[in-house]
Amino acid sequence: MIRFRRSKFFKYRSLPFALCFLVGLLMTVAGPAMGSPESRAEKTTPAPEPVETKGNGEVLLVSLDGTVNPGSADFFRYALERATAGSYEALVIQLDTPGGLVDSTRDIVQGFLNSTTPVVVYVAPQGARAGSAGVMITLAAHVAAMAPSTNIGAAHPVAGGGQEMDETMTAKITNDTAAWIEGIAEQRGRNKEWAVKAVRDSESITSTDALKTNVIDLIAENLDDLLAKIDGRKVTLAEGKVHTLATDGAKVVHLQPSFKHTVLMRLADPNIGYMLMIVGFLGIYTEFSHPGLIVPGVVGAICFLLFLMSTQVLPINLVGMLLIVVAMVLFFLETQTSTFGILTAGGALALLLGSLFLYDVPEKVVDSPDFSLSVSWALVIPVTAGFTLFVTAVMFLVVKVQRARPSTGHETLIGAIALAATAIDDRHGQVKYDGVRWTARSRTPIPADAKVRITASTGSTVTVEPAGDDEELTIA
User: Fold this and answer.
1) Rg for the chain, CA atoms, rounded
2) Does residue 20 fall inside a structural domain?
3) Distance (Å, whole) CA 281 – CA 301
4) Residue 331, domain extent
5) Between the CA atoms of 316, 318, 324 and 327, what dihedral angle is there, to the nearest 10 degrees?
6) Percent of the chain's residues with pLDDT above 70
7) What is the C-alpha to C-alpha distance for residues 465 and 422, in angstroms, rounded to an integer?
8) How far apart are CA 370 and CA 372, in angstroms?
9) Mean pLDDT throughout 27-32?
10) Residue 233 sits in the same domain as residue 303
11) pLDDT tens-place string over residues 281-308
12) I need a surface site. Which of 82, 83, 109, 443 has the fewest CB within 10 A?
């Protein structure tokens, strides 16, 4: 069994990082329960008769330019709460998305359908699209509008990593999604037939065709044109309330994502989460192997905590995570022992496989081919190659130094006081002398971290015996 020397710094300076890991793990476990869609859903009871409501003459504007993920879903929920609390005339969402996660889309749509504040989805600017998940979000709005030269459609579900699903699973998910979007269109009085085609046949149409086929309510050149055209329109809110929009000339309040929402949306990128994990491992390894440096440990702990936060946004494959941990352990052991590349090769293979399987969970389905839960090959290959080359270079330097030492004369080692890097007996062991590890043998069992005297040297192997605790280590 190999044991490693512990510095006095190791005992005390590593405690804060251990506490950080504990907090991060608690966040990972508690996060999903605290932020589940069920806990955020509002229960509504239909009112017997419609009731007229009025706003405050202002509209709240938010923008989504990217994928639909838990971060953006949480931001939409927050914006809807702000719009309701502030009695805004409407919440206007300027949308440009290729799609995203189905679970996040359901969370957003559920909020729209149960909203007591009018929601206006505006696919803009010109050239924007409401792809995949964007179709459900647009259809679920009280008012659906598009700018000229925009398009909507192609909502057929695909697997999270782009892999093929079996026929049964494909049919199951497609039927479920088709029924879902048909229900949304029916509730909002929009074209149910086209909505189903968008899911089953990936049909996509322009803003002009969308208006002609009753997929959207209107086309607006810009935001001012939108507010003027929807002025006076009556919309039915949750609980049967009827609201007449008074938006012509209304003041527009632009709500920007908070730092929290910005971080969550960035962490929804699997490549960013992956790099945070890698940097975290490097920093923590550096701190543990060289206690007292502080900076690498702090940076590594922060990056690893951010990675743990990303596990609340993206699904983690436990096997992939364990493979990466095993890879880091093998790389570390290679720098501490002499296996001539065996552990390095195993570490490289484990890191490669773990990186590919880290987020790729077949059960998690998205409805956009532009959104993936897999780490990019363009990132996995350089990271794996970098780790492998780094460990190989370290081992090359260690072997070079060990081979150079005997050429100066074995007699320089005889009588030197060294430190037992591992437990030593007559079969195996290691000592550290002047920063270099040597294979050691001893007729008398010697525990790790004990002082030893070198009595003989042959090649890269030395024979040792116990030395007194009061003797000082020899420095060459």
Assistant:
1) 31
2) no
3) 8
4) 316-358+374-402
5) 180
6) 77
7) 14
8) 7
9) 40
10) no
11) 888 877 776 667 788 888 888 888 888 8
12) 443
Domains in the chain: how many in total?
4
Counting residues of the chain whose pLDDT is more than 90, the rounded percentage is 32
More confident residue, 379 or 291: 379
Q: Which of 261, 250, 257 is nearest to 87 (CA)?
A: 250
Confirm whether 177 is domain-assigned.
Answer: yes
69 plus 164 within the same structural domain: yes
Which two tokens mark 472? Answer: 């000082």
Do 95 and 133 fall into the same domain?
Answer: yes
Compute the mean pLDDT over every residue in the chain, rounded to the nearest whole number.
Answer: 79
pLDDT at 82: 93
- Given a cut of 60, whether residue 375 has pLDDT beyond it is yes
Residue 369 lies in a domain: no
Query: Angle, to 10 degrees, between the axis of helix 259-267 and the axis of helix 70-85?
Result: 150
User: Across the strands, what pairs with 451?
Assistant: 419
Q: Is residue 365 part of a domain?
A: no
**Where do runs of H (alpha helix) occur along 127-216?**
133-140, 167-188, 192-200, 207-212
Binning pLDDT at 50, 70 and 90, where does residue 9 land?
very low
Mean pLDDT of 321-332: 86
Q: Are residues 397 and 411 in the same domain?
A: no
Same domain, 85 and 145: yes
- pLDDT for 150 beyond 70: yes
Long-range contacts of 175-179 (CB under 8 A, 24+ apart): 177/102, 177/367
CB 28 within 8 A of CB 312: yes
Q: How far is CA 128 from CA 19, 53, 98, 134, in A?
A: 46, 33, 9, 11
From 114, 41, 31, 103, select the one nearest 67 (Cα to Cα). Answer: 103
Q: For residues 135 and 201, state if they share a domain.
A: yes
